[in-house]
Amino acid sequence: MADEDRPDWAQKIRSEREARKWSKAEMARQLFKAAGIPQGNVRSLARQVAWHEAGTHRPTDWAAAYAVAFNMPETVLFGGRGTDNDDVERRTFLTLATAATAASLARDIEPLRTAFESAAAVAVGRRDADTWERVAWEYAGEVGWAPAELLQRELATDFGELTRLIGEAAGTARLRLVHVAAQLAALTAITLTNLGEPRGARRWWRTAGRAADETGDHSTAALVRGRSAVFALYGAASPLSVLNMADEAIEVGQGTPCTGVVSGHAARAQALAELGRHREASEALDDVRNVYDRLPEFVRADRTTQWGWSDQRFWYVASTVHTHAGSLDDALNAQDKALAAYPTRNWQARTQVEMHRAGVLMRAGDVDEGARHMVRVLERLPAEQRADGLLQQSAMTSLRLAPTEQTQRRTIREARELLASNGR
């Protein structure tokens, strides 16, 4: 994109960064610091900084952090919102066109790289496993907030290459690559759920489970099943089916306090809450806390990847349980703590928590304010984020908490129409 075609905010980001003599990596560190994230994937965020400065991705989730890092008002850096529809539409078009062109070019030249890999026939060994473990870790930090359409294509390409390498590997290197395959398959399933394709996600969860079992590592097997149970809450599975999946994750984990086992308990608590079994859900939430308190510190400290289980996840689960029970004070308290814990960039989970807030207001009797809160939150998001599968399901679940006799109120209809207008 030529300089004159770049949005003003993209040019300002670059000029402000260069005025401070920061590299893109240093800009990423400053953004993490501004967002209150003690550790983050600098390489991944530096790549996003490049996208921001090129004007191909508007930094919706990082706008506030940029403003703090540069010590200037967000409105000065990015301008007011909604004041120039034509400009917004032009930028959106340029963003989509540029992303589509880049993706097309990458696909066009991929056969050349694949042909070389086949011709070289280099032995697969430890260094390949090291590389692919880093790849999986980077994806784990991007899935859930980066554009799902782009990630799905990249994951598919990398999974294809990894599959070929596994067929040529042996011994420890092969086992490590199979472990990576389990992770990438799980991340693909999560991405498909984000895209609103739960049935496709189920097939990838099966693949992830088989790969995890082949590693012989019960923690990995529990991880895949626990995360699968959690994401099944946002798919086509019934809460009763989720309970079975959650129990399997807990059993496979063999009592080890790990991400998979705590995820199983978390899925169980939320499924019971959706079923209206509130006493059991509260007891299950106690089980979540018990396992959480015994998790390794590196798991509790991980706020940025799909494999961590920090306090932000606990308060999210607590928010869900109290919201369905209609416990207004407990729900609002859990939501406040969740929002304080989630990084700024995690727009998906933060918005889901706001959907909980709308739901508990409706469950407690303030239907109009709950629905209006939902609309206000959704209207602040770009259309592609409003179409997110997890967000859509969270919003619809909250709307179902309104008393049956009030589901045709104008405010409820407006919220439903807003959601439908952005569904995939």
UniProtKB/TrEMBL annotation:
It comes from the Bacteria. This is XRE family transcriptional regulator. It comes from Actinomadura fibrosa.
